[in-house]
Every structure is written in C-alpha cells, then in structure tokens.
What we know:
This protein has two domains: 1-147, Winged helix-like DNA-binding domain superfamily/Winged helix DNA-binding domain (Arc Repressor Mutant, subunit A, Orthogonal Bundle); 151-230, SH3 type barrels (Roll), CATH 2.30.30. The strands form two sheets. A six-stranded antiparallel beta sheet has the order 3-8-4-5-6-7. A two-stranded antiparallel sheet has the order 1-2. By secondary structure, it is of the alpha+beta class. Strand 1 and strand 2 form a beta hairpin. 39% of the residues lie in helices and 18% in strands.
Amino acid sequence: MTASHGELPASNVTQDYLKAIYAAVEWGGPATSVSALAARMGVSASTASETVRRLADEGLVHHERYGGISLTSRGRHAALAMVRRHRLIETLLVEHLGYEWDEVHDEAEVLEHAVSDLLVERVDALLGHPVRDPHGDPIPSPDGEVSLPPTRPLSETPAGDGGHVVRISDAEPQVLRHLADVGVRLDAHVTVVEARPYVGTTLFTVTQPGQAVGDAVELGDPAVAAVWVTR
Length: 231
C-alpha cells in the first residue's frame, strides 16, 4: 500500500526507515547513507538498499546512487507524524506512568505503531501540548511544524563557556542513567572547565535551576557527546 499525502504508510518497516532518515539530519547531521542506515536499523546493507529503492519508488525518499538519502515532502510528512507519536508516548510514559527517561525509547518504538491518530491527539491534550520530549527532542505539531532551539554540541563548547542543557541523546540508556546520576538534565546550566584529552574526560560545573553554586562533574567523551546546550 502506498501512502497518500494525508496518511501514514501501512508498513511498520517503512515508518521506521522514514523516522531514521529524518533523525539523522534533525540536529544538523549529514544525510544518511545506505550503510549508515543499515547499521542504524540493524540490517544488512543489501536489505537497506532494497528498502530504500522501494521507498524511492513509492515517492517517499530521494536517493542518488552512492549519495545521501533524503525525504520527499510526502516522506517528511510521514516521518514527522511518526516522530510526533514516538515523542508524545515517551512523554506520557515518563510523566504519568512512572518510567525513567532511559526506559521509554524501546517501549515507544513498539507503541507508536499501534496507536490511532485519535489516541495520539488525546495524549497530546492530556499532556498539555508539550513542545519537547523527556530528552529535549522537539515534538512536531499536528501539521508537521518543528521548532529547534539554537544549540551546539557540548563537545564543541570551549573551556570557560557553556549553556543550558536543551537535548540529551537517548541512543545509549546507560549514558542517560549516568548523566541523570550526576545532575546533567534538561535546563541545568553546564560550564566547561577543562578538557582532559589524555584521559578522555572533561571537567564541568553543573548548576541546577535555582541553585546558586554549581557542582563539579567529570564526564567521559561518550557522555559529553550525548549533550547539546544553548549557544
């Protein structure tokens, strides 16, 4: 079944691929390649290539041979609808069902395919129409509008500078747990004190909203790479 402009593709696989292609570029990354998409989806390169060809035939993606994969207008519409479902479900699980922020991604990956449009809008209303999920990722509006704050990766922030935490990648649950344990959460202010490349860590001061004096925190490179801050 090929999706029209106003409906989601029927295939869960198609929905997942479109969401992954969108996620690759959402925070300024390059367009994904077939090999990168295969790694993200946990399939062989040949399987990913075959699926991308099918998506292109259905008018959902553009793909130049050996080039990056991008979404068509219809593909982006469908991807944003799935992103909206996923992030609203994550927010519901954290705010109303007692989940921790490192537990919700896999649950939302399953539930996003099962809920109806009506349920998604009821969840949105219940939550008070949130604009970001528990990790700071923006929740698209019903008509597909997305508002990204001006940000930069914490890893690219020089010593003596910093910003408020606006996004933390949910790719690695153990990293999320560690960051929560040391107080690196959304809206905390992080100041870079000293990079220590010889041991693969960076020293920061982390100040919570309303806190007068920050706490010293040392983070390894994988944890630093997961954090985005305001410019």
